[in-house]
Amino acid sequence: MNRKVIVYCLILITVFTLNLIAFKEKKDEETKQETEQTTENTEIPKTLKDQYNETIIVTASLGAEVYWNATTAVSVMTKSDIERLMQVELTDILKYIPGVISQRSGSVGKTTSVRLRGATPGQTMILIDGVPLNDPALGLPNTSPLTLSSVGQLEVVRGSHSPLYGSSAAGGVVNMISRKGEGPFKFTFYGEGDYETMYSGNIALQGKTGDFFYYSDYQTIRSDGQRDNDNYKNNTFNFKFGFDFKEETSLTFNFHYIDSLVGIPIEIMSGTRNFDKNSKQTDLSFLGSIILDLKPLEKVDSKITAGFISTHQKFKDPADDGEEYAWPVSSKTETTAFNLNFVNQIELAPEGNFVLGVEYKLMSGTSTDELYNYVNFDKDYDIFGIFGQIKYKVDESLIFSSSLRYDDFGEFGDSWNPRFAFSWFWAPGTRVYGSYATGFRIPSLNELYYPYYGNTALQPEESESWEFGFEQFMFEDNMHLSLTYFNNSFTNLISYDFETFMAENINSASVKGVEIMADFMIQTNLRGSFGYTLTDGIDESTEEELIRIPKHQFFFTLSWKTDGMKIDLLARSVSEQLDNAVEGFPLYNEGYFLVDAHLTHELVPDVGIFLKVRNLFDAEYFEIKGYPAYGQTWFVGIYFR
User: Fold this and answer.
1) Residue 564 to residues 526, 560, 587, 602, 608: CA-CA distances in angstroms?
2) How does strand 198-209 pair with strand 186-193?
3) Helix (H) or strand (E) holding 33
4) Which residue among 40, 195, 415, 451 has the highest number of C-beta atoms inside a 10 angstrom radius?
5) The pTM is what?
6) Distances (CA, A) of 632 to 103, 491, 612, 616, 619
7) Coil, strand or helix: which one is 501?
């Protein structure tokens, strides 16, 4: 950023701040009077248990239910949680959820993988408002450009949920539920950055008039990275609007557009990582969905979702001057995915319900070598699925749930996947739960058709998973503790076979571990959380540990608010892990410990300035070996909500 822009930003912030201070002085007396008038009518502060009991989730059972009634391990981050942790990108906030492994290959915007309970990135399903983002060509979602600006609630369901969601949900599901406009017209803004190498900003408009609601925002991220050709640009537009009709009927339209450009400073040749000064990748993604919620009968709730996602990815690497074996590369991949989902939730009795749904997916992709005008593949396929779930409350202390799904994917066969689960309310504030499920992932277009690699004889990857855990509220219901043991096995995993030089179903793996999570609230001005995940993953084909699966992960967050000030501390620890094996020699990635800190000053209600420091102690570390992450970085910013 040039110096003039920096000066203009500082002047704008200064003038705005001085005006806010004057406005604050004028409002202080009014606020004081309003406080005195309402003190007598102030409600008793809600406990943490009250807040959990009021949290409605939709991902675990494909229908709205209270968090406490779920029959699986699920983590929820509400809008206030997202604002409290002050993260911009999805993959950064996922690091504060147990069981999640989020790893980025270097600077902001670079390729990022998300794994749940040690499953592969392709076995993790990412949704926006229930619409899958998994790319048909690669078989996994492009999580790198996903931001949190429009997310009102984030739900992470761990363990296989293929019985409800089909392919690519063998490890679990991450659902980004976008914000919905409510109340009178409201304008929000925030901007942050070091204003030399990296900054981001967001502008949003929202509101509701009669039956019509709307929410729209624009998010931008700019970064020069840490070296030459390490830059990143991201422009994201989100738009949601619709109508809330009477009798529990609503019609919602969602649109998301992402335009990103990323420099790729490192190239991989012959197993070595060399500097690349001109390699670039551009990504364009458009996602749209139409959701109709209605109640055709007194005891029937129906939802029809039509979703569409289109991606356009271009990779260009011109020949490097002066290199003996340099050659140019230019490729393009375009994919589309259409999803139609019809779900009915039928109330069987006050104690239970039955979910019945059908789903149709049409996937297509084209990969082209633009330099030689050669089409690598141009293919499409469709999937038809039918699924059902019965959830029954035996009495006030026991809930049973069972699911079954059938998927037909044409020439690649079909798959039946069941799930059985229970929740036992052992004592007031205590829940014991367990589940068993199978899962699958169909091969991607690259794995099936890419020249000299693809194999049309591939079969779907398969999995079995089970979990057992408990949750407990304690300390006058202001601390929530959960502990879960999980055990997963994966077969028919698709890997490169050095004998056939093709993709083959040759690998199998087992992953087991423990997740511990605790939230606590001391009064209303001090809140925090900590989590620990033990993951033990073994490649059963080689009897070696799985690569990039840290055995130990730990995080801790603490937020303290007082008199318009807020202080946040965020700490994470990741243990050493096997990164790769070069010519039979294991390559390990060292563990690391990171601390971030935030200081926020609220000038007037919903308006403030803040200071953030990332990697407070300037640790040198790699989330993926060979791709250095950021050192100590300071940000300043302003927000208006």
Assistant:
1) 13, 11, 48, 5, 9
2) antiparallel
3) helix 3-38
4) 415
5) 0.90
6) 18, 42, 11, 6, 8
7) coil
pLDDT at 583: 56
Runs of H (alpha helix) within 77-156: 79-85, 90-93
The CA-CA-CA angle for residues 254, 260, 266, to 5°, reads: 145
List CB contacts of 477: < 8 A, sequence separation 6 or more: 47, 48, 49, 50, 429
Element (H, E) at 66: strand 65-66
Task: List helix spans (H) across 115-249.
Answer: 162-165
The rounded distance, in Å, linking the Cα atoms of 93 and 86 is: 9
Determine the Cα–Cα distance for residues 50 and 46; give it in Å rounded to an integer. Answer: 6
Degrees to nearest 5, angle at CA 497 with 371 and 330: 10
pLDDT of residue 599: 97
**Angle 347-349-355 (CA atoms, 0-180°, nearest 5)?**
30
| pLDDT < 70 regions, the chain | 1-45, 267-274, 321-326, 581-584
What would the two tokens of residue 150 be?
Answer: 């429009």
CA distances from 325 to 281, 319, 321, 322, 328 (A): 22, 9, 10, 9, 10
**Distance (Å, rounded) from C-alpha 5 to C-alpha 24?**
28
| Rounded Cα–Cα distance for residues 368 and 332 (Å) | 5
